[in-house]
Design goal:
- Two copies of one chain form a homodimer.
- Chain A is mostly helical.
- Chain A has two domains: about 70 residues, 434 Repressor (Amino-terminal Domain) (Orthogonal Bundle), CATH 1.10.260.40; about 30 residues, no CATH class.
- Chain A is about 55% helix and about 0% strand.
- Chain B binds a DNA duplex through helix 3.
DNA sequence: GGGCATTGCTTGACATACTTATCAAACGTG
DNA sequence: CACGTTTGATAAGTATGTCAAGCAATGCCC
């Protein structure tokens, strides 16, 4: 049912990406010698849905993706990169001496871990942006 | 208009991450001097939904996340990191650095005025509402 | 030949992401 | 003050992700 074959509308590229992602997941699962149900038990995701994801019928949410990567012993980066979701950006920023503000944020007791991360992210993105960015 | 940052909702880690992600997106958008509707036009995502994402009310899908990253000139990875996707590689913080974060931000020569204001805004929004909440 | 467990897959119901239309407040103009 | 515009936020609806339950096929034991 509801297969996207007869849609008629513009074929969004996500179909292809989903196919690749699903195939990759399936390959990894079989490598690990897991059945759908076993993997379902590991990920707390229904075998039904896993099946659909592996066949590229659905776009899994971040939560699901993470659970899958976790169960397969992969990093989430590997999963997405394999599927072509992340644009690889060889853009490493070695933190040289810009430690003043960063250190303050890191040691600020008023921030929760999540907040700390977010704030550091904002700050770093500010600094990185000035160093020059490859236009695409 | 409630619109207060602190709703008193359940403190699931899920929520914290979403809040961080939303705050980050909002900061970036304002840095780029975009309104919600302008950004909506760029991302093809409704301003309404963008508003909800920025306030941490929803967990955006990969597609949406990517569109946002694209519009803001960020890499998908940067956004993904805030979305709780990457495991935080906690860096060590040199002791003795504990100081006034606000002051550090203010005196940071690497920040422009606009960035300074944005960062301070995020920081203040974080620590707002937790004042005087020490009992437990 | 008949059972029973295990495999991947489909179906129908629900939860959540996402959209279109609309709102109230803040801005400026005459 | 009336008017139009722009802002962020809300409501109700649509699309899509996700699950629990069940089906056809395969393999094993009798």
């Amino acid at each position: 049912m509801a297969s996207a074959s007869n849609d008629g509308t513009a074929p969004d590229p996500w179909h292809a990406q989903l196919g690749a992602l699903g195939a990759f997941i399936r390959a990894q699962r079989q490598l690990a010698d897991l059945s759908l149900r076993e993997m379902a038990a590991l990920t707390r995701i229904s075998n039904a849905y896993l099946s659909q994801v592996e066949r590229g019928l659905h776009q899994p949410s971040l939560t699901v993706l993470r659970a899958i990567a976790d169960a397969l012993g992969l990093t989430t980066d590997q999963l997405l990169a394999k599927a072509g979701w992340t644009r690889a950006v060889a853009d490493d920023v070695p933190p040289g001496q810009q430690a003043n503000t960063e250190a303050s944020i890191r040691s600020d007791p008023r921030l929760t871990e999540a907040q700390r991360e977010a704030l550091l992210g904002v700050y770093r993105s500010f600094i990185e942006g000035r160093s020059g960015r490859s236009g695409g």
